[in-house]
């Protein structure tokens, strides 16, 4: 046997042992959790220790990139789910409400509007329901659980009555469907990170929490998005009907198309409408109470709650969370790489209440990436079970997490987050794809495009001045007349420009007409306004980074240059500042201006597929250039008071239309593409 073959053999053998050890560890951890949960005198500390350490062991074992097959992952998951079914929710009582809701839906047609406490002292059909009623937490409040879950609760009640075994079987089956979907969505090794995780098995089956239902429906919708957008919307609507936090992913529907969005809205309206028409509500009142008062094991919210009054802290947390989620959506390049785990992680970061089972929202989608923090959370959040009630510690309130357990969670999570950030920065420096390299342009053939509308007092001078600069080759100057009613065309012709008429009004329409009329040998386009505000002498400086091959697009930045007093109105300056800051926030590219004076290589312009016909032209060019990883440079550009009245900044209507269009283009490129 050769040395190479021997090494390969040892590698395969090591991988085999690692796989076996990981499978044994997850089965042992799950079995141990089941046995501890069945013990009437079970203590929470060993249970939590096994839950955390078991999740850690499985994560470390699988993270070593074992060679797994889909059949093996699903087969082991099936065994684990069967084992977990025999567990008992020793430290959880939410399932009593699920059983009760299922019964109420069957006998009355709605579980909403009536608090379980109203049945205290009344005769119930059987002793099982009486025991269920006694176990419900917060019995003075009607249920908060969405209609999608209510249908599952009722089916489980029909199947098994008040025995929680029915819920365990249903949730186990749904989770196995989720595992099967994960095996289609990602690699078997990554799917196993979720499928074999003891925390997932405990929260889904032993503790009987339905949060995995939402994750399964969302993933099904994502997998169906390309070919069946209507069904994708259906599943997104059902997911929001299971857990309202699923709405945080609804901006993804914009990328799937309007059919998916309409389907989701229609589905959600229909399943809630079934109960709303009965006049007993749909759980929103109780949800509002929990949102206003709930406080349990918070993470980032704990800091806000210390710094601000409670109501302001909750509002601030919600607003900050919404902004971060929108930015994450805007930075999403495609549906396949949507940062779903980060989106749900943001919700948990600013939530006033953080339970371990909320990780069922995150962990399935974290398998798509190499982030450590979600799986570190699976190790940390079981410590939230160390409450005064479970520890039987009179020094703590019933639902107060021991301070050492809370601190340990924070330390574990912060360590994992810092690790992820450090690794991300290192990989970004080493493996980030380089910007598109360009060769210098030895023989620049420049075409200057000047869109114009009623600029007779300035166009002639602009054309003469730009043409008289020190160019290596004289540029071809095209004035794209946008329907002028004065002498613009005559003055431009007299100054030596080529005239192209574009009757369809719009800055972008005129620019596109000029591009279409450019000579075929054009390799650089220079755009400028015809109102005399741009300084033609700066044209060669804008073109230079293109000819030497150091840039694909050069923006003449008025923010970096000198502006004459009154050259730019406050709305213009604010709009430029806001638009460029949004581009930086969403796409990570710092720019200072949307100036019309700009130069771009012809081959780069072809790739941008420009389409905007009016005020969104400049921002569309810059955003698309960023999206395509083009090299964008800025050069200081002086700016003079224009000759005549501006069609944009000169009127309130023009300012509003331009501002709205610029924001629309940014939103379109961020959320719809």
TrEMBL record:
* InterPro entries attached to this UniProt entry: Glyco_trans_2-like, Glycosyltransferase_2, Nucleotide-diphossugar_trans
Species annotation: Parasphingorhabdus litoris
Asked if Repeat is a keyword of the record, the answer is no
SUPFAM superfamilies noted in UniProt: Nucleotide-diphospho-sugar transferases
Q: Which UniProt keywords apply?
A: Membrane, Transmembrane, Transmembrane helix
How is this protein named in the record? Answer: Glycosyltransferase 2-like domain-containing protein
Q: Does the keyword Lipid metabolism apply?
A: no
- Which classification does the entry list for the species? Bacteria, Pseudomonadati, Pseudomonadota, Alphaproteobacteria, Sphingomonadales
Q: Which residues form the Glycosyltransferase 2-like domain?
A: 447-606
Residues that span the membrane, as ranges? 14-37, 43-63, 72-91, 143-160, 167-185, 205-224, 231-250, 256-277, 306-328, 340-360, 372-391, 403-422
**Pfam families registered for this protein in UniProt:** Glycos_transf_2 (PF00535)
| Family matches, as PANTHER family | RFBJ PROTEIN (PTHR48090:SF7), UNDECAPRENYL-PHOSPHATE 4-DEOXY-4-FORMAMIDO-L-ARABINOSE TRANSFERASE-RELATED (PTHR48090)
């Amino acid at each position: 046997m050769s040395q190479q073959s021997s090494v390969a053999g040892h590698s395969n053998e090591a991988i085999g042992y690692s796989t076996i050890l990981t499978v044994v560890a997850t089965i042992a951890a799950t079995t141990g959790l089941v046995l501890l949960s069945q013990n009437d005198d079970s203590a929470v500390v060993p249970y939590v220790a096994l839950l955390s350490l078991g999740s850690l062991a499985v994560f470390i074992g699988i993270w070593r990139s074992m060679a797994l097959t889909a059949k093996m992952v699903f087969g082991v998951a099936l065994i684990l789910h069967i084992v977990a079914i025999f567990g008992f929710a020793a430290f959880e009582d939410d399932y009593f409400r699920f059983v009760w809701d299922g019964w109420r839906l069957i006998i009355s047609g709605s579980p909403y509007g009536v608090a379980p406490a109203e049945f205290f002292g009344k005769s119930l059909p059987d002793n099982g329901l009486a025991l269920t009623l006694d176990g419900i937490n917060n019995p003075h409040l009607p249920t908060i659980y969405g209609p999608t879950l209510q249908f599952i609760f009722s089916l489980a009640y029909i199947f098994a009555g008040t025995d929680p075994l029915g819920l365990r079987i249903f949730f186990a089956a749904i989770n196995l469907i989720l595992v099967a979907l994960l095996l289609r969505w990602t690699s078997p090794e990554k799917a196993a990170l979720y499928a074999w995780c003891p925390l997932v098995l405990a929260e889904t089956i032993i503790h009987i929490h339905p949060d995995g239902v939402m994750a399964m429906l969302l993933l099904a919708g994502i997998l169906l998005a390309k070919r069946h957008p209507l069904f994708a919307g259906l599943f997104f609507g059902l997911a929001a009907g299971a857990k309202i936090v699923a709405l945080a992913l609804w901006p993804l529907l914009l990328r799937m198309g309007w059919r998916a969005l309409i389907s989701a809205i229609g589905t959600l309206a229909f399943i809630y409408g079934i109960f709303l028409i009965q006049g007993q509500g749909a759980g929103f009142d109780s949800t509002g109470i929990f949102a206003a008062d709930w406080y349990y094991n918070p993470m980032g919210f704990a800091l806000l709650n210390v710094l601000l009054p409670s109501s302001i802290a909750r509002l601030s947390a919600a607003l900050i969370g919404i902004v971060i989620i929108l930015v994450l959506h805007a930075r999403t390049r495609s549906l396949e790489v949507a940062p779903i785990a980060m989106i749900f992680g943001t919700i948990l970061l600013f939530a006033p209440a953080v339970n371990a089972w909320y990780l069922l929202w995150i962990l399935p989608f974290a398998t798509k990436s190499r982030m450590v923090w979600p799986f570190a959370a699976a190790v940390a959040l079981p410590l939230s079970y160390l409450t005064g009630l479970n520890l039987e510690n009179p020094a703590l309130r019933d639902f107060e997490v021991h301070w050492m357990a809370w601190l340990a969670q924070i330390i574990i999570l912060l360590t994992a987050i810092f690790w992820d950030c450090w690794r991300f920065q290192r990989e970004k420096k080493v493996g980030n794809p380089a910007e598109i390299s360009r060769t210098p342009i030895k023989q620049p053939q420049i075409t200057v495009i000047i869109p114009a509308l009623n600029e007779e007092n300035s166009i002639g001078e602009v054309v003469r001045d730009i043409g008289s600069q020190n160019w290596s080759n004289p540029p071809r100057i095209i004035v794209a007349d946008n329907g002028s009613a004065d002498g613009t065309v005559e003055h431009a012709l007299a100054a030596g420009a080529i005239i192209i008429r574009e009757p369809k009004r719009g800055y972008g329409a005129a620019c596109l007409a000029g591009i279409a009329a450019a000579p075929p040998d054009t390799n650089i386009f220079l755009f400028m306004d015809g109102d005399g505000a741009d300084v033609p002498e700066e044209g060669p400086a804008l073109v230079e980074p293109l000819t030497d091959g150091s840039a694909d697009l050069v923006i003449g930045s008025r923010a970096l240059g000198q502006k004459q007093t009154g050259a730019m109105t406050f709305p213009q300056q604010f709009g430029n500042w806001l638009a460029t800051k949004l581009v930086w926030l969403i796409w990570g590219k710092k720019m200072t201006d949307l100036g019309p004076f700009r130069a771009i290589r012809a081959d780069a312009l072809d790739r941008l597929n420009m389409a905007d016909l009016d005020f969104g032209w400049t921002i569309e060019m810059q955003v698309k250039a960023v999206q395509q990883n083009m090299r964008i440079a800025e050069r200081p550009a002086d700016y003079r008071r224009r000759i005549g009245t501006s069609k944009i900044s000169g009127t309130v209507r023009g300012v509003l239309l331009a501002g709205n269009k610029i924001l629309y283009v940014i939103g379109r490129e961020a959320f719809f593409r």
